[in-house]
């Protein structure tokens, strides 16, 4: 077995792992990158980029069918499923190729292929061919789709977010288990491409929205294009007549049956940690199987090991994974050199869903207790720019403390990917509602919706 020694061993070549490897190099450490494969990052290969390509195709079909509002008549719209998926994979492969190009810049001797496992708190074995002694290690092994028990054993009838984009054609019908960000994005896109879609979710939230009125609005909006069932419990699943039969219970406790050509498991992703033999490294694992770690330094308790990206199950989105990777790589190099690690304050949380309308959650989460909060609300139904574009659905809910300092909010509507950034920056900068409203906003733009919500918040404060 080959024997190697390094300052920093990075396990995983996704977004967080690549960032950690580069940060460790920059800090002067001798680093190696261990790749189990397939490479290309979750975002580029099976996540945000291919899903957005599917969403874009669905939006094009939907727009072509819905031009009457503007006095434009279009007929004969058809969807070529294989062509849609061929473009998706071609563009996806371009994004993955870009990731590989970045990896190709690394010296070959510092890239090791294979599955890693810990032998002790400073030793890894990769496959059966390489033993690595390290001074510090970074776990950046990413995540894999969670498949609920009833769906296991469905064989080709089951799709996951890792396999759905590999199908040769669009299915005639699709059952989606999960109405979170990925589930509802794919469900709406598929429906707009002509697939009969049913969504089943155990909870009451949808598209990451927990504010009750916005969640209800989202359910009503998406329910026009697909069958959406919240507070439902999947009881059983089986193959039937070349498709899948799902037995489930609705919110009233009534037994229901859904039949579809395929079922998509979109009930979240779990960290890829089981094969690492973390106990041998002396790490203490929580009930979720993730090591205890400090969220500012990303150092795990009990060993010179750090964890970053989807592997830590904290904020599984690309911009967080990239930043966490950089922090972990820098701190791993510091540990390897006997220096103190840096404690970095987390960013204001930001999560988006690219449905139509879009959804986002920013900063402090929703709470039903409003005793210590001001809440500003607005409805897009009569917002000027939204009506011009025919996208006047949804609303905003923004909250602040009793002094008017912005804490966060949730959004459902047009251009939310831009509105959410503005609110995120305002929260991060510690602005009050008045300070935020004093900033310029051009007319007519959807951004004016923020002023409406902020004015309502200020009026509440003035009445206190």
TrEMBL record:
Cofactor note: Binds 1 FAD per subunit.
Entry annotated with the keyword Oxidoreductase: no
InterPro entries: FAD/NAD-bd_sf (IPR036188), FAD/NAD-binding_dom (IPR023753), FAD/NAD-linked_Rdtase_dimer_sf (IPR016156), Pyr_nuc-diS_OxRdtase (IPR001100), Pyr_nucl-diS_OxRdtase_dimer (IPR004099)
Keyword match Flavoprotein: yes
Binding positions (NAD(+)): 178-185, 268
Positions annotated to bind FAD: 52, 141-143, 310
Obligatory cofactor(s): FAD
Domain (Pyridine nucleotide-disulphide oxidoreductase dimerisation): residue spans on this chain: 352-453
Any GO molecular function: NAD(P)H dehydrogenase (quinone) activity
SS bond list: 43-48
Signal peptide extent: none
Domain (FAD/NAD(P)-binding): residue spans on this chain: 7-325
Active-site residues per Swiss-Prot or TrEMBL entry: 443 (proton acceptor)
UniProt keywords, alphabetically: FAD, Flavoprotein, NAD, Nucleotide-binding
Pfam families xrefs: Pyr_redox_2, Pyr_redox_dim
UniProt family annotation: Belongs to the class-I pyridine nucleotide-disulfide oxidoreductase family.
Protein's name according to its UniProt entry: Dihydrolipoamide dehydrogenase
Organism of derivation: Methylobacterium phyllostachyos
Classification lineage: Bacteria, Pseudomonadati, Pseudomonadota, Alphaproteobacteria, Hyphomicrobiales
């Amino acid at each position: 077995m080959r024997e190697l020694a390094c300052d920093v061993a990075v396990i995983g070549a996704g977004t967080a792992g690549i960032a950690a490897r580069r940060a460790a190099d920059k800090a002067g450490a001798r680093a190696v990158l261990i790749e189990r494969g397939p490479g290309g990052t979750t975002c580029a290969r099976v996540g945000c980029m291919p899903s957005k390509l599917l969403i874009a195709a669905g939006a094009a079909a939907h727009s072509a069918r819905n031009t009457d509002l503007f006095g434009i008549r279009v007929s004969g719209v058809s969807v070529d499923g294989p062509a849609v998926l061929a473009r998706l994979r071609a563009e996806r492969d371009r994004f993955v190729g870009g990731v590989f190009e970045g990896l190709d810049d690394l010296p070959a001797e510092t890239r090791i292929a294979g599955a890693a496992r810990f032998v002790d708190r400073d030793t890894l074995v990769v496959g059966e061919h390489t033993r690595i002694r390290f001074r510090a290690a970074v776990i950046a092994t990413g995540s894999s789709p969670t498949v609920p028990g009833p769906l296991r054993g469905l064989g080709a009838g089951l799709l996951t977010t890792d396999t759905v984009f590999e199908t040769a054609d669009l299915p005639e019908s699709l059952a989606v288990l999960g109405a979170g960000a990925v589930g509802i994005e794919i469900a709406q896109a598929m429906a707009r491409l002509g697939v009969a879609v049913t969504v089943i979710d155990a909870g009451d939230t949808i598209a990451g929205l927990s504010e009750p009125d916005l969640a209800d609005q989202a359910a009503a909006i998406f329910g026009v294009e697909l069958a959406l069932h919240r507070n439902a419990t999947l009881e059983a699943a089986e193959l039937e007549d070349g498709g899948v039969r799902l037995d489930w219970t609705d919110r009233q406790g009534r037994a229901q049956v859904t039949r579809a050509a395929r079922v998509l498991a979109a009930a979240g992703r779990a960290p890829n940690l089981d094969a690492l033999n973390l106990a041998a490294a002396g790490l203490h694992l929580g009930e979720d199987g993730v090591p205890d770690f400090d969220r500012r330094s990303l150092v795990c308790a009990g060993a010179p090991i750090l964890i970053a990206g989807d592997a830590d199950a904290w904020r599984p989105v690309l911009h967080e994974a990239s930043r966490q990777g950089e922090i972990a790589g820098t701190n791993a190099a510091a540990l390897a050199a006997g220096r103190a690690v840096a404690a970095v304050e987390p960013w204001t949380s930001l999560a988006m869903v690219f449905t139509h309308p879009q959804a986002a959650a920013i900063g402090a989460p929703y709470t039903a207790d409003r005793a210590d909060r001001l809440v500003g609300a607005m409805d897009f139904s009569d917002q000027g720019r939204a009506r011009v574009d025919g996208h006047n659905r949804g609303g905003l809910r923004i909250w602040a403390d009793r002094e008017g300092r912005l804490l966060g909010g949730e959004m459902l509507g047009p251009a939310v990917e831009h509105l959410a950034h503005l609110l995120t920056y305002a929260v991060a900068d510690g602005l009050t509602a008045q300070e935020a409203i004093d900033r310029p906003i051009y007319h007519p733009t959807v951004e004016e919706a923020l002023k409406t919500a902020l004015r309502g918040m200020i009026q509440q404060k003035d009445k206190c």
